[in-house]
Amino acid sequence: MSQSEQPSSVKGKPTIFHEGYIYTVERTTKTKSIFRCKNRDCKARCYTNLSMDALLLLPTSHCHAPQPDSVPAIQLKNEIKAHAAITDGSTSTIIHSALRTYPLSDAGQHPKNEPLMLMIQRQRTTETVDADGRLPDKLRKTYRDEGFILHEDKKLIIFTKKTNLTILKQNKHWFADGTFKVCPDDYYQLFTLHAMMTNAITPLVYGLLIGKSAEDYNLFFEKVFKQDNFQPDSNMTDFETGTIKSVKDLLPNILHKGCLIHFSQTAFRLNVKQLIALAFAPLDQIITGFDLICDQFDDDADDLLEHFEKTCIDEPKISGNGHDEDSSKPRYQDEESLLSKIGLAYYSTGQLIRPNSTGSIFKKYGS
């Protein structure tokens, strides 16, 4: 009875290695386990005992060469999976620890770090809610065994502790922000309240909200305000309409400030959208519209405006903030190329046209 190398796992299936070939389990009977070649174009099979540590019959012939250098990569992935399932270490720590024993001779088959990091994240067990829809005990307390749930229902979950609320009360200047990218699927955004601590703005209260309306923010602030008599002097937020309205309604006597960075981003996005909207302007008004939009940008956007004008308007500004003296003369004589370069046209048919090639608009809809 031949020995097989210690069984492992690929995508959850038991796997064995023998003479450079990799086999995954196909099925198990009462007396043996049947494995097939990992290469699905190959019909080779082998049979082991139920403990999968010995071959009952030699494998049938393969239609390809063995791949012994693939074995260390699979073993590396299995080691990382096992480590990720039982530890709370960072992904980089787990990967670096496993790579210490990876043979240099097989470096060519070494998996890239990005797939390994995703594999670790998938391997980590997901904490589920209990039968009543409540978070598990592990997520209800801090590592110092302090309560961390201020409020919990299907519309809102607020995470904080008493110490954080004390610090928040002592600070007269608050900061609030929301992020939509890092948030569980059941909620819409993670909204946070911050205050200044040791010369750093630190998040103190975390809220999972189901939306971004004023009602959503009102519910968040009302639950927080019930905990103590908070009297901040100012609150800085982004330019979400719901946030602004909620702060004005619930904190009417404080100074509300908007974040300059968020304001710049918002203004820049709006102005860029206006540039795109030039595609829907009448041809004889595109130049005038472009000039009006340019006046709304600051100097940092000069490179963008120059690129847009050169690419889509086709005649750069001559100097300063002025153009040719004869401003009534179109800077772009070829109507067909102008619309094709912009890429969108709302022509007399009232249809939105997305040309696939230069000149396709006027070939199809031109007069």
TrEMBL record:
<dbReference type="InterPro" id="IPR007588">
    <property type="entry name" value="Znf_FLYWCH"/>
</dbReference>
<keyword id="KW-0479">Metal-binding</keyword>
<dbReference type="GO" id="GO:0008270">
    <property type="term" value="F:zinc ion binding"/>
</dbReference>
<dbReference type="Pfam" id="PF04500">
    <property type="entry name" value="FLYWCH"/>
</dbReference>
<feature type="domain" description="MULE transposase">
    <location>
        <begin position="174"/>
        <end position="265"/>
    </location>
</feature>
<feature type="region of interest" description="Disordered">
    <location>
        <begin position="316"/>
        <end position="335"/>
    </location>
</feature>
<keyword id="KW-0863">Zinc-finger</keyword>
<feature type="domain" description="FLYWCH-type">
    <location>
        <begin position="9"/>
        <end position="64"/>
    </location>
</feature>
<protein>
    <recommendedName>
        <fullName>MULE transposase domain-containing protein</fullName>
    </recommendedName>
</protein>
<keyword id="KW-0862">Zinc</keyword>
<feature type="compositionally biased region" description="Basic and acidic residues">
    <location>
        <begin position="316"/>
        <end position="334"/>
    </location>
</feature>
<dbReference type="Pfam" id="PF10551">
    <property type="entry name" value="MULE"/>
</dbReference>
<dbReference type="InterPro" id="IPR018289">
    <property type="entry name" value="MULE_transposase_dom"/>
</dbReference>
